[in-house]
Amino acid sequence: MTDVLNFGQMLAAHARLSPERIGARDLEREMSFALWNARACRLANALLGLGLVKGDRVAVLAYNCIEWVEIYAATAKAGLVAVPINFRLTGREVRFIAENADVAALIVQDALVGVVEEVRADLPIGDDRIIHFGSRPAPAGFRDYEALLAAASAREPGQVVLEHDPWTLMYTSGTTGNPKGAIRSHRGSALLALTTEIELGIHRKDGALLVMPMCHANSLYFFGAFAYCGGTINIYSRANFDPEHCVRTLAESGASFTSLVPTHYVLMLGLSGAERARYDLGSVTKLMVSSAPARPDTKRAVMEMFPNSGLFELYGATETGWVTFLHPHEQFSKLGSVGRECIGSAPIRLLDEDGNEVPDGSVGELFSRTPYTFDGYWRLPEKTREAFRGDYCSVGDMARRDADGYIHLVDRKSNMIISGGENVYPSEVEQVLAAHPQVRDVAVIGVPDGKWGERVHAVIVTENGTSLSEAALAEWVKDGLAGYKRPRSFDFVRHEDIPRNATGKILYRELKTRFAREKV
């Protein structure tokens, strides 16, 4: 007997207790808890029927759609491990994750079949385990998702799934070029869901509109919280964000919560008074600003647009889950802070390079200890050891604590760029640019952007001062980098113009200060 129910078991409970209530919907269709549970059982049994065994990894490549909640529940029921893949990645990047995770099956949405086809010959998956869903029949060589479900049993699989078994393998962009797979257990995921419910004050009458990609930790973690308590999951299944459409969806769905990045809020605030007046947003009572800080004037405007809502912020990571929460009543008394520790967490530790705690007001590396911290990096024991000091975990963020105990971030994973809510690591972009035969040296930074918060900017040193155009470099990165990772602007400089320390390492902070000022 386990201490906590996993999400497959919790869905079965909702299907038994509230079978007719709407459990999930996207912009095309909706499912009661009973139907959701039955389809999740069918998918779980179908995957096991293909020869998958407990612990096997199932990769998923899809835009936001209702199938995500079926897949997450099915893998939980079958004891399989979901490997969500960012739909913005190129074929090369998808292949790396599939090979690194040694996935046993891949489920792909019709609109992304082309990405799979690019690298299909190199994927470590048999044709009978590449599963297609979408608006048209499966292409030749792909299994049909709906046909698999129709042929499978709707009974609970009966698989013994323990609380410490892994449920998801979430790949995070790596500072050394390749992403790392963060292992998260059923127990950790359930405890994170319960913590989220407490911090936000949500219950079964609440509903969430999930706008962030379902392949991201943000939507997965909020999905877990609302699914756990029996709230309705509304998935914003539109490929491109449309501010008026999103506002209309919020109003029509009756959702009480959504999590958006500052860019989304800025776009929504850009709607005219007449456009806003068309929609009643009174049902929205909780809003989250996630992934990047919002300006004070943006916060005030959001609160005016959603008069019945409280505004939350948080700090967390794929590995740690939520670390801090900033609640509505603290928004303007603690501007610039990400709040304090979540309920049930140990006090945050801010450590210097020698592992000593720094005094309040000083900057140190942030270490947290929560009941839902990840179980380590997939097949990277050294990286796992580096992430922990005892039971405390760090993802490399630097922060300071004020006299009231509130945490203020100083650097985001040292050099990480946050563009439109997406994390971009300079080293990954630099590797692709450095492979160009005319590039001698390169440094990638984020510079301010009014729409996206930051945009990726590349500082280039060419070989022997040869001429190289921005257009040529933009074309060069197309095949190797997802769109959001590609530089939007370039500067060509001399080698000595890139600041370095005594050991030759680039001083990114100094470089960013210089070019950010020049690009404003």
TrEMBL record:
SUPFAM superfamilies for this protein? Acetyl-CoA synthetase-like (SSF56801)
Q: Which UniProt keywords apply?
A: Ligase
What are its E.C. numbers? 6.2.1.44
Please report the stretch or stretches of sequence annotated as the AMP-dependent synthetase/ligase domain. 13-378
Per the record, the domain of life is Bacteria
Q: Does the keyword Nucleotide-binding apply?
A: no
Instruction: Please list the reactions this protein catalyses.
Output: 3-(methylsulfanyl)propanoate + ATP + CoA = 3-(methylsulfanyl)propanoyl-CoA + AMP + diphosphate
Q: Matching InterPro entries, A to Z? A: AMP-bd_C, AMP-bd_C_sf, AMP-binding_CS, AMP-dep_synth/lig_dom, ANL_N_sf
| Recorded GO MF terms | medium-chain fatty acid-CoA ligase activity
User: Domain AMP-binding enzyme C-terminal: where?
Assistant: 428-505
**Is Ligase one of the keywords?**
yes
Gene Ontology biological process terms in this record: fatty acid metabolic process
Family membership: Belongs to the ATP-dependent AMP-binding enzyme family.
Name by which UniProt lists this protein: 3-methylmercaptopropionyl-CoA ligase
Lineage of this protein's species? Answer: Bacteria, Pseudomonadati, Pseudomonadota, Alphaproteobacteria, Hyphomicrobiales
